[in-house]
Amino acid sequence: MTLTENARAPQQDRSRETRDLILETTLRALARIGWNATTTSVVAADSGVSRGAIQHHFPTKEALMRGVLEYMYEGRNTSEFSISAEVPEGVDRFEYISEQVLDYYASDHFKAALQMWTAAIGDAEFSEQLQMHGDKLARAVYDRVVVVLNADTSDSRTHRLIQTTLDLSRGLGLADVLRDDSKRRQSVAQFWADELRSIKQLNEPQ
Amino acid sequence: MTLTENARAPQQDRSRETRDLILETTLRALARIGWNATTTSVVAADSGVSRGAIQHHFPTKEALMRGVLEYMYEGRNTSEFSISAEVPEGVDRFEYISEQVLDYYASDHFKAALQMWTAAIGDAEFSEQLQMHGDKLARAVYDRVVVVLNADTSDSRTHRLIQTTLDLSRGLGLADVLRDDSKRRQSVAQFWADELRSIKQLNEPQ
Where does the HTH tetR-type domain lie (chains A, B) (predicted)? Predict the structure, then answer.
């Protein structure tokens, strides 16, 4: 490694950190105040990064939003939103997974995606990207539910009930946008856990 | 009635008709191209009403959107979206109501409301109006399901399943925004009809 390369590395790290800070701040702003209110000025004020630096990384609002979309779905940034397959000791696995999935779709992650989802309606390319990421995420959540519940998805009703968990979660996430719907969501999660109990599990005792 | 009053009446009718045409056109545009793209120019082009006349009825975009919100939830304009309590001859009532509710939330009415829902996030007063109308509509849909299914809502699971029908419908409505999700929705409606069959009905034979 030459001296020049050595000197460049920390600078690249700093640039990457700044970029991530901008994207994280934009994501939170989208969830909190929506697409139109999320301007460079707001992101600058919230992040402490100068408007010039933001514009250097993302010359247009479109570039910034595409950046956020990629950022949200990058593996290393989804830990906050990811649902662990490890059910905590002493917790009912049906209640655990029902609550986790319902809460996931009420996160800032979903709310930011929802803002993009509605704003993207006229933009075919952005729509397609959103759909692709959304589908990938839905498959990951579906698979996680299957593993936690040891579900036999060759059983059609079992497959459908798990799929319904995702659609239901999106509906509840939407209800949480204009008000704090967490109390109702918690009681729905309890109810839904009991519905999920009727699925077919693999290797069940006959 | 004086001559002047006589002459004024048809003019008021025309003004009302123009107002309704503007609002109906705006609603369709919101559902199709979203909040930001729905401009006075677009509404003028789609409706054939001049920009001047639109601005006379609705001086600001805010006024236009509040107008659409009220228009959507006025009794006389909801016939297209209303769900009849009359189950067509020979049609299973569970399949009927499941399909009707799921399709309702994939209508232009829901899509336009969704655009407002996400755009209203920073506007406390508009948010409150949206919530009030949304709650009123949800209660009306809930009541319609109860009547069609002759449901005993004193049974907690029955109440919950019907409530879940609404949240599920919102989630499916969202999925229909960026693509035509009607085929999947139809198969979910079939599945959900079978789930609803397990509710408690009033005056069931013991």
Answer: 16-76
What is the C-alpha separation between A113 and A77, in angstroms, rounded?
14
Residue B178 and residue A120 in contact, taking contact as beta carbons nearer than 8 Å: yes
Judge: B188–A167 Cβ closer than 8 Å, yes or no: yes
Domain membership flag for residue B54: yes
Let me know whether A87 and A60 are in one domain.
no
Tell whether B16 and B110 lie within a shared domain: no
Mean pLDDT of B170-189: 95
User: Is residue B84 domain-shared with residue B58, that is, in the same domain?
Assistant: no
- Residue B130 to residue B115: CA distance in whole angstroms: 11
Q: What is the mean pLDDT of chain A?
A: 90
Q: What is the dihedral of CA A108, A110, A115, A118, to 10 degrees?
A: -170
Which residues are registered as beta bridge partners of B151? B201
pLDDT tens-digit readout, B96-133: 999 999 999 999 999 999 999 999 888 889 999 999 98
Of A36, A122, A178, the CB nearest to B130: A178
In chain B, the residue whose alpha carbon lies closest to the alpha carbon of A169 is B171
Residues of A in contact with B130 (CB under 8 A): 178
Do A107 and A205 sit in the same domain of this protein? yes
